Amino acid sequence: MTASISPTLVRRIRSARHVTAFTGAGISAESGVPTFRGTDGIWVKFKPEELATMDAFMRNPELVWEWYVHRKKVIAEVRPNAGHEALVALERLCPHFAVITQNIDNLHRRAGSTTVYELHGNIERNYCMECGERVSNEAVLASSGVPQCPSCGGKVRPDVVWFGEMLPENEWEGAVRAARSSDVFFSIGTSAVVYPAASLPLMARESGAYLVEINPEPTPLTDHADEFLCGPAGEILPAIVRAVTGTRSTGASPIHSD
Ligand code: APR
What we know:
By secondary structure, the chain is α/β, with parallel strands linked by helices. Helices cover about 40% and strands about 15% of the residues. A six-stranded parallel β-sheet has the order 3-2-1-6-7-8, with helices on both faces. Mean pLDDT is about 95; it is low at about 250-258. The structure holds adenosine-5-diphosphoribose (APR).
């Protein structure tokens, strides 16, 4: 493993009341979900302006749905990895723990994380653009072409945030609260270039959090971090849990309670 876990980080986590993990596509890479800007990244192969904007959807809803149906199938085939599972173990260790994710793959919830702020939506949800009715993934995957609302016949869209759209208010406000109250804030597997999400690690640091970045490559955030742990999340996060619990495995038991 490339990075070793510092005694400072272990001490900080053990004494922390609020710990937050901010995640991007990199944490799901080891599950087989492609990242966006990596060498084989989605935005290297496809144009976001043709697939992930309201204009693209209005212009060619068939193409956009074809792509989201493809992504739904890819994500349905994968499983949470050791990185997701280590965050569930950390949640059990800390009095207050939150995950703030840019990912739409639902893998944090599938791993068992309970407090998850989904800034960019969730690919397993869909809704009607006319009446707002929620439409199940089964119904969407069973339909061909552009799915229609069973109630009003309106166009159905995936419940994800497209470029140029506002983030869901409750999720954003929850994320800001978690960032500002963090004693330790992890930024994991994100290139930290997409705003407003990328402002959260800096917000946490300005509020006094110990900022730790986990990524195999440096990002624009690296110079602002108190620690940069260079390597894959699926290796580094379990190592952090082992170091904090002083165990060889991640079968973590609570260190302290309220
Ligand atoms: N562990 C940790 N980090 C990794 C791993 C890994 N195994 N593999 C890759 N990474 C890092 C890459 O080095 C890169 O910095 O994950 C980052 C992924 O960056 P992006 O592909 O830009 O993904 P992300 O930061 O999540 O993108 C933000 O942009 O396209 C929009 O809405 C989309 O939520 C997405 C947002």
